Amino acid sequence: MNGSIAHSVAKNTTVMIVSQSITWASSFVLMLFLPRYLGSEEYGKLFLAISITTIFQMVVEFGGGYYIAKEVSREREKISVMLSNSIAFRFVVWLGGFVALMWIAVAVGYSPTVISVIYVLGFSKLWEGVGKVYHSTCQGLEMMHYPAISAIVERVVVTSLSVTALLLGADVVTISVIMALSTLLNFFILSKLMKSHVQYLWTPRLTEMARIAKASIPYFMWMMFSVVYYRIDAVMLSLMTPENVVGWYGAAYRFFDVLMFLPSIYSMALFPLLSKLWMTKQDAVAVTTQKSLQFIVLAGIPISVCVFTFSHEIIELFFGTAEYAPSILLLRIFSVGLLLIYVDFVLGTALFASDRQRQWTLTAFFAMLLNPALNYFFIPFTQLHEGNGGIGAALATLLTEYFVMIMALRSLPRSVFQDANPNFLYKGSVAAALMGLTLWLFHESNVHWMLTAVVAIAVYCAGLVNLKAIEPAEMNFLRSFFSLKNLKNLFVLSKESRT
Questions:
Q1: 3-state secondary structure labels for all residues of 436-496
Q2: Residues 56, 140: one domain?
Q3: Fewer CB atoms inside 10 Å of the end CB: C or N, the chain?
Q4: Which helix (H) or strand (E) covers residue 367, if one does?
Q5: Residue 498: predicted pLDDT
């Protein structure tokens, strides 16, 4: 991976991690207030409306996040045409979907409050859909500091206003209005920052909109299939086991879900670069993909080891072992599958970037069929023998991700791994063994688990350096990139973006 590619990926990954950390903190503060001040019934109405409109948002986006970023990365001179027709297409999809959404809400018989919240949040998906077009354009331009800034402002504003409103006695509809207006603020900031890169918008054309819609279908289908095979386990558990089992599984899966932030963010930064290289320097695609896999595996190993080792402490901290003790084993199973998912993120990104979206979509389709089939047998078996059907669902998830990895490896061009060197796996394993020894020694000394985790990760990193799993040139790059002077410039806007 050459210097310019490494700098772009590192910059955008770091910016998004900082943004994610701030938005997580804001969301955590908001979650401390929402359930308590709204009450369980009103909060349930808000949660229901958010769940429904989130599915609606996926339809409005229609897989454009991948398609737009790819096209912009390859042909930057067509940004205005792409934006104009993509925005017009999103408006058409939103309009038809919004009418259907409101009809369904009334037909199902939701309460007036739920219908009002769905109306407010559903209406806001118009500018959220357009904002996603700008977001994907920034991704294609490798300028993720723009959406990072707008996301930070949005989360801080929605948290501040919502907490204030709740303290003043606001109801759930008021909170939904604040959420909608905050996303509108996000859109305005992002469109303002993009002004220097998009001087004008072309008049949309039906033929171009139809072309974009057709090209986006594989990405949209992949999103839909993925949602099914990632979420069907909870539905099947609810039908085949008692409610408390679903709760145990949900507690472990929620933490497991959070840990996917690293490969998700990294893949977002990697995707436009691989897409551009595929059209110009396919040999660089192989090097960049291999280096990305090396990074994501070496970064995932200590996370996986720590989650496995401290599953009991994690569940105790966030949920309490009085009710959620069975979640400990589930989290340990998920920790084993963590590396598989990390690898699958990078492989899927490489497939999309190399125009193999149909193969990746087909993989998601087969995974959507395989996961329920495995759950159908595993859940009743583990419920009967272990009293916890969640064990079966977790094992089904593990096997499904392994299947996805094998399919992805078979679908990628052979040239991607032609000169691959697996030595980093051996070195990573040795560093992980040193880390495990440190964890055991500190556990015997009764040191607090958080301090133990920090020291063990430091030992792991030192092991990687001493074993030269990280090359000297890469170490020099890391020292330079993470210098205080460079980090200060990550969120600095160019002069053009301020005008």
A1: HHHHHHHHHCCCCHHHHHHHHHHHHHHHHHHCCCCCHHHHHHHHHHCCHHHHHCCCCCCHH
A2: yes
A3: C
A4: helix 357-386
A5: 42
Which tokens go with 285? 């695609």
Verify that 275 and 163 share a domain, yes or no.
no
Task: Give 333-364 as a 3 state SS string.
Answer: HHHHHHHHHHHHHHHHHHHHHCCCHHHHHHHH
pLDDT bucket at 282, cuts 50 / 70 / 90: low
Helix or strand (DSSP H, E) at 145: helix 145-167
DSSP E strands, 203-264: none
The number of domains in the chain is: 2
Cα–Cα distance between 348 and 357 in angstroms, integer? 9
Q: Does pLDDT of 380 surpass 90?
A: yes
| pLDDT score recorded for residue 378 | 94
Structure token digits, residue 47: 């949660």
Q: What is the dihedral of CA 51, 55, 56, 58, to 10 degrees?
A: 140
Determine the Cα–Cα distance for residues 220 and 132; give it in Å rounded to an integer: 14
> How far does Cα 290 stand from its chain's mean position?
21
Range in 28-42, 47-61, 62-76, 173-187 the model is least confident about: 28-42
Average pLDDT, the chain: 82
Do 428 and 297 contact (CB within 8 A), yes or no?
A: yes
Domain boundary among 387, 420, 453: 420
Higher pLDDT, 135 or 285: 135
Mean pLDDT of 139-156: 85
Considering the domain architecture, whether residues 364 and 276 belong to the same structural domain is answered as yes
From 390, 420, 450, the end of a domain falls on 420
Reported confidence tier of residue 495, pLDDT bands at 50, 70, 90: very low
Label residue 55 exposed, middle or buried (CB < 10 Å: 0-12, 13-18, 19+): exposed
Sort residue 89 into left (φ over 0), alpha (ψ -120 to 50) or beta.
alpha
CB 372 within 8 A of CB 232: yes
Please state the pTM of the whole predicted model.
0.77
HSE value, Cβ hemisphere, 13 Å, CA-based, for 235: 8
| Angle, alpha carbons 293-298-301 (nearest 5°) | 120
Q: Is the distance from CB of 454 to CB of 442 less than 8 angstroms?
A: no
Between 372 and 495, the more confident residue is: 372
